[in-house]
Design brief:
This protein is an alpha/beta fold. Helix content is 37%, strand content 12%. It has helices at 2-13, 19-35, 39-46, 51-66, 74-82, 87-101, 109-113, 137-145, 166-173, 182-187, 212-226, 230-237, 239-249, 351-359, 386-399, 416-419, 452-459, 475-487, 522-533; strands at 204-209, 252-253, 261-265, 270-274, 283-284, 314-320, 325-331, 376-381, 406-411, 431-435, 465-470, 495-498, 538-541. The strands form three sheets. It has a six-stranded parallel sheet with strand order 10-9-8-11-12-13, with helices on one face. A hairpin with a 4-residue loop joins strand 3 and strand 4 (270-274). Helix 2 (19-35) packs across helix 6 (87-101) and helix 4 packs across helix 6. The chain is globular, with a radius of gyration of 25 Å.
């Protein structure tokens, strides 16, 4: 009966699908009928879907195939759901289609390695891969369509699969000219960098480069989080990476004879770290007994990674169009559960120390001391007092040479007169406080109900440095705002500080009492932050 239903779906809708993508849709529908993988799928295939429902499902699946990260377009998802198709059915259909087109960048370790020839395949790292060694996304589509697969020599030139969208892979597999999308052009490794509209930007984005450590996590986070292996991987297999990362984060280094110790200071908490004990992680929230009380800890300095730490620090490359100079800014890697990597992994004698591990923000790497721009503007949401998020950003970014000229803070429960008593006098002149809820879409916006991405574009100019902290504990609104920024080609946001609350983040989920997405996993959180960074936005996962 499944096959009969699939045939009816094909017969009634195939004529409306663009010819380039037709065989991909046919293939995934056949796979849905044959897989018989779950009760949900079998129930869905027995349903007699309307033309509009089938069209909406196809659009949602196509958006996942065409997305660089395999993510379904939120509007297409909502449209399909409104036509009566369950979210689970849509996600499963897209997952099957992405696997068969090879456009599943987050589950195929080799899709990460294609952009960087120096990166070792998963098999060489001792990791396993279920993908045939000579099979890429283009080959997968050819195999599905019955097109012969040509054998390539190891040194044969090939456009990296990682720079082709789903549509580009389909065009290539069909033997058609590949039309580069704006995403592909932006990330192509050529010497020609498209100029901005004004040709005068100080921070014109060139490319994002994941460090070695991040590449491993991009490839394996889905498996490790599902098997709840994050802590064991960090504490055993990746001990060298973690030690190198902690060493990079040191803000104060003690002098001899106590120079094996350093302090990682986030403005609120100070973590003591033994840099010489590489066999274990000797970390303490209290001064170690071997360091006398009269030993002075030097003032904390900005974290400015050098080439020594490139295995554990990812980087963004920008072009100063006014000088013609390219420059690099480092950023913490996307690893672990997107918090301080070892939080919830260290066996602490005191329960309060475990909470300090989770609160610690010392793993975040702000911009370097020299940020090219006119004004520095902070758009903050959700802060009910100075210490509720504002203090950390203002003081730590100041440590890195960034003093905010304007601070706009929004919260629906806190009036200005409730905020001012907690704010140091020196910062009050630069702060504008608004008590209001936030719109999640531009069409919802009112003067008293702002859509912040539009507000930021209206108030900030091209060369202002714009930092956006999003923390309103409303998952749908937050995700819509982030989706808009990701898909807006004219966004002027330079830096995002946000935490994606999902049940799939099993180490942090127990600490999130509200505003948690129950249908998303940790891999999808990685996708959000990776897409932001590949857009040139310094995206940090923490609130």
């Amino acid at each position: 009966s499944n096959c009969v239903t699939v045939r009816s779906l094909i017969a009634r809708y195939v004529s409306s699908v663009p010819s380039i993508m037709r065989f991909v849709i046919l293939r995934f529908l056949l796979l849905l009928g044959a897989a018989n993988a779950s009760k949900t799928q079998r129930r869905y295939l027995r349903e007699e879907l309307s033309y509009e429902a089938r069209k909406a499902l196809s659009q949602a699946v196509l958006s996942a195939i065409q997305s660089p990260t395999g993510e379904i377009d939120p509007a297409a998802m909502e449209d399909a759901i409104s036509k009566g198709i369950s979210r689970e059915s849509i996600l499963k259909a897209a997952e099957i289609a992405r696997q068969k087109t090879g456009n599943n960048a987050m589950s195929d370790p080799r899709s990460v390695t294609l952009k960087d020839p120096s990166y070792k395949p998963a098999e060489e790292q001792g990791l396993t891969s279920s993908f045939p060694e000579q099979m890429n996304g283009v080959d997968s589509i050819k195999m599905s369509a019955g097109i012969p697969i040509e054998k390539r020599t190891e040194n044969q030139a090939e456009l990296p699969e990682g720079e082709l969208s789903g549509n580009g892979m389909v065009q290539k597999a069909a033997g058609m000219p590949v039309t580069a999308t704006s995403y592909e052009k932006q990330n192509s490794k050529t010497n020609e960098i498209p100029a901005s509209s004004s040709g005068n930007k100080r921070r014109h984005f060139v490319e994002y480069q994941s460090c070695d450590w991040e590449k491993i996590w991009l490839a394996k986070v889905y498996d490790w989080s599902n098997k709840r292996q994050i802590c064991s991987v960090l504490m055993e297999d990746q001990k060298q990476y973690v030690h190198l990362f902690l060493k990079m984060l040191c803000t104060s280094k003690l002098e001899s004879p106590h120079d094996k110790w350093c302090v990682i200071d986030d403005g609120d908490l100070q973590l003591w770290y033994n840099t010489e004990n590489v066999n274990e992680f000797e970390l303490s929230w209290e001064r170690p007994a071997s360091v006398p009380a009269d030993v002075v800890v030097p003032p904390p300095q900005a974290v400015t990674p050098s080439a020594e730490f490139e295995k554990v620090a990812s980087k963004l490359v920008y072009l100063d169009e006014q000088t013609g100079e390219q420059y690099v800014e480092y950023i913490e890697p996307l690893v672990s559960h997107l918090r301080f990597p070892l939080s919830a992994c260290i066996n602490r004698e005191k329960k309060e120390d475990e909470q300090l591990d989770k609160k610690f923000k010392g793993f975040v790497i702000p911009p370097p001391p020299v940020v090219r721009g006119d004004r520095a503007i902070l758009y903050d949401t959700g802060s009910t007092s100075w210490t509720d998020g504002l203090k950390y950003i203002v003081e730590i970014w100041k440590r890195h040479g960034i003093a905010f000229d304007v601070i706009r803070t929004y919260d629906q429960d806190t009036a200005p007169d409730q905020l001012w008593p907690s704010v140091p006098q020196e910062y009050i002149p630069s702060i504008q406080k608004t008590k209001t809820a936030l719109a999640s879409l531009p069409e919802e916006a009112l003067p008293t109900f702002p859509f912040l991405p539009a507000v930021m574009k209206e108030e900030a100019n091209e060369n202002d440095y714009v930092v956006f902290k999003l923390d309103i504990d409303k998952t749908l609104i937050e995700s819509r705002i982030i989706d808009f920024i990701i898909n807006d080609p004219e966004t002027n946001v330079d830096e995002v500080i946000w935490e994606h609350h999902v049940t799939g983040n099993y180490l942090m989920y127990p600490d999130w009492p509200k505003g948690v997405s129950t249908e998303l996993n940790l891999r999808q959180s990685y996708e959000y932050f990776l897409r932001l960074r590949k857009k040139g936005i310094r995206a940090h996962s923490w609130i």
